Amino acid sequence: MRARVAHIWRHPIKSLGREALERVTLTAGRTMPWDRVWAVAHEASSADGSAWAPCHNFARGAKAPMLQAIEARLDENTGQVSLSHPGRPDITLHPERDADALVEWVRPLVPAQRAAPARVVRVPDRGLTDTDFPSISLHGLSSNRAVGQWLGQELSPRRWRGNIWFEGLGPWEEFEWVGRRIAVGEAVLEVRERITRCLATTVNPETGHRDADTLRALEEGWGHRDFGVYAVVVRSGAVAVGDEVKVI
Asked: What is d(CA 155, CA 60) in angstroms, rounded to the nearest whole number?
């Protein structure tokens, strides 16, 4: 079986929802279009939108598990994002123009003992990925199944908040791509490093409650906390569900 693209996901607002795509056009040196364009900085954050900032500056699932249950839908023509959550009313807004409304919508989902949501941040010309380089995250569905089998439960791939998922790889085969280039559809990506995971992955993306000790599974089962890899786009091109992936 040849490895192919099974899912494409973008996350318009960092840590606040995800949206499935059938096709995306990647650009060399850029993050995925409309992925993590905005983020909600908390009251202890130093992020001001002038430059990339590490993830600890923002509201995120590792500290506020309920955020993991948000779903998002972006209107590319207007820049408006529709958000839904099992414990909050549906809302449609523009993250910058309606920043105060977004902060107030998120606030009840953040534990009282954590730094409260304070403002919306956007950095020109790049998404607020967890890396200080413009990355796209790649994952294998077989690796997700391996972790689920170790835990004895089915795991939704959505808990890993990845961009592109592949079917047809062996478990952890994506780790072998580090330092190499892969062709996916019309695009070429260079794989930089493995992704070390945090508590956000322990959260059920349907409910926002912790229900799977993914970090213990990774540590005891494989001796690390890594899942997926970060890559950078080195040749622009379209990628669609069903496209083949090849190491080149």
From this structure: 20
Nearest Cα neighbor of 106 from 160, 140, 66 is 66
- How far apart CA 140 and CA 27 sit, in angstroms, is 22
Domain 4-30+131-247 sits in CATH 2.40.33.20? yes
Q: What is the Cα–Cα distance from 24 to 32, expressed in whole angstroms?
A: 8
Backbone φ and ψ for 2, nearest 5 degrees, come out as -80, 145
Domain boundaries, the chain: 4-30+131-247, 38-122
What is the DSSP secondary structure assignment for residue 109, as one 8-state letter? Answer: G
Count H helices, E strands: the chain? 3, 15
The whole model's pTM is what? 0.96
Summarize pLDDT for 156-191 with one digit per residue, the tens: 999 999 999 999 999 999 999 999 999 999 999 999
What is the rounded CA–CA span in Å between residue 86 and residue 97?
A: 25
Region of 53 please: left (phi>0), alpha (psi -120 to 50) or beta: beta
pLDDT digits (tens, 9 = 90+) for 43-80: 999 999 999 999 999 999 999 999 999 999 999 999 99
Separation of alpha carbons 142 and 177, rounded Å: 15
Number of residues in the chain: 248
The owner of tokens 């060399």 is 28
CA distance 25 to 91: 28
**Cα distance from N-terminal residue to C-terminal residue, the chain:** 18
